[in-house]
Design a protein that fits this description.
binds magnesium ion; binds adenosine monophosphate; six-stranded mixed beta sheet; elongated; about 400 residues
């Protein structure tokens, strides 16, 4: 058995960020920039008003109240036909460019407009620059907007749109194929024959991939048959950036996955000092990473979180690879026996009003008991030799669920 850290490092050492390619801005949410982005435009592009009101010469308002001659109206999206001089004002709407000669805006609430007379009474004195948004206050040409490695989210994409960037060089989102193996598995809803069970891993793994922001591809269910297994792995490695299989990585007599992958790939078969998810295989078919996840349903999901997700995040160009852990208080004992392994217990609970997590061990901790995994809001990490009693703090991995 090797340690969790050694197994993780082994996997991470053998994958690299995908080469950046141009992506349309509309498709770039969740991608990681492959290069620095430098602004070529100015934002705002021109001096404009932050308020509806009247553009004025600030010094004219020194003796407020004052009456000024209104020279016209300028709306957002147009430019004033003329400028203004001392003694004059221009009606102006939020976002409209400042007329030539004006250096301040008086908000409409502090004015009285006499449309018939073509005048406005300004009630207050304002300083130069009042309510004026200067050109380039947000972005100037040559500014480094976002550095390579930035994970693009709503604000970033808004800024890029504001400077007219239509495409960015980003690490492509990995496409990940998922297959299940085993003669006992049924996936078409028919009544089960003796010895059969339904395939649950494939849908769970496809969903984990989608929740992690990767493109998941269903490669189907494969019999315990060498030729069929070889065909689906070669197909998956050919059209995906990574392949996840579940089942066939332990010591069973019909584990043809091992036979096939040793022939067509460069694999390492590992026993890791963790529970669940002790058996694991990782390697390459050609350049394509292959993750041989254990067959037991809880194990396959935990193995995904601990090994596959971090590696796929590295391929996607991300810098934070592992789940962020936090500390939680045990509502009651997490009792475990010593077996030389770190246990990942399925626990329920969550943060209290002050943000402090409180957790309780769920019933049904077997690696075949998927319901506890489904109900778990976190995995508690309990190292060998640790006796976590009620009130003790333990490290947890909060699990992302759509509800949280
Ligand atoms: P294996 O590693 O193939 O020996 O599988 C270990 C255990 O996981 C066995 O009880 C399998 O029946 C079960 N198993 C394997 N694949 C799946 C799957 N796709 N869905 C549900 N259970 C599975
Ligand atoms: Mg099997």
């Amino acid at each position: 058995m090797i340690s969790l850290d050694e197994a993780r490092q082994h996997v991470l050492d053998r994958v690299a960020p995908a080469v950046p390619v141009a992506a349309a801005l509309e498709q770039a949410a969740g991608l990681v920039l492959g290069v620095d982005v430098v602004a070529e435009e100015t934002v705002p592009p021109f001096d404009n008003t932050a308020m509806d009101g009247f553009a004025v010469v600030a010094s004219d308002t020194d003796g407020a109240p004052v009456v000024l001659e209104v020279m016209g109206t300028v709306a957002a999206g147009s430019a004033a036909d003329s400028g203004i001089a001392s003694g004059q004002a221009m009606r102006i709407m939020t976002g409209a460019p400042m007329p030539r000669g004006a250096d301040a805006v008086v908000m409409v609430e502090r004015t009285s407009y006499d449309e018939d007379e073509g005048t406005v009474e300004v009630e207050i004195s304002v300083p130069p620059g009042n309510h004026v948004r200067g050109a380039g206050e947000d972005v100037r040409p040559g500014d480094l907007l976002f550095a390579a490695g930035t994970l693009l989210s709503a604000g970033h994409l808004g800024v890029l749109a504001s400077v007219g960037v239509a495409r960015v060089d980003a690490h492509p989102r990995p496409t990940v194929g998922v297959l299940s193996t085993g003669d006992e598995l049924v996936d078409d809803g028919r009544p089960l024959l003796p010895g059969e069970i339904r395939d649950s891993n494939r849908l769970a793994l496809l969903t984990l991939l989608a929740e992690s922001g990767f493109d998941a591809v269903d490669l189907g269910l494969v019999r315990d048959d060498e030729a069929a297994i070889e065909e689906v792995f070669l197909d998956g490695a050919g059209r995906c950036d990574a392949v996840l299989s579940s089942g066939g990585v332990s010591m069973g007599a019909f584990d043809y996955v091992k036979v096939v992958l040793d022939r067509i790939g460069d694999m390492r078969w590992i026993q890791i000092a963790i529970k669940p998810a002790k058996p694991f295989a990782f390697g390459l078919i050609g350049d394509t990473p292959v993750f041989g996840l254990p067959g037991n349903p809880v194990s396959s999901m935990v193995s995904y979180e601990l090994f596959a997700r971090p590696a796929l995040r590295k391929i996607a160009g991300m810098s934070t690879l592992h789940h962020l852990t936090r500390l939680a208080i045990c509502a009651d004992s997490l009792g475990r026996h010593d077996d030389g392994k770190t246990h990942f217990l399925r626990v329920e609970g969550g943060p209290d009003e002050s943000g402090r997590w409180h957790i309780r061990k769920l019933g049904g901790q077997g690696s075949h008991q998927l319901t506890a995994m489904a109900r778990a809001t976190a995995l508690a990490i309990v190292p060998d030799g640790v006796e976590a009693a009620a009130g003790d703090e333990v490290e947890i991995i909060p699990l992302s669920t759509l509800a949280q």
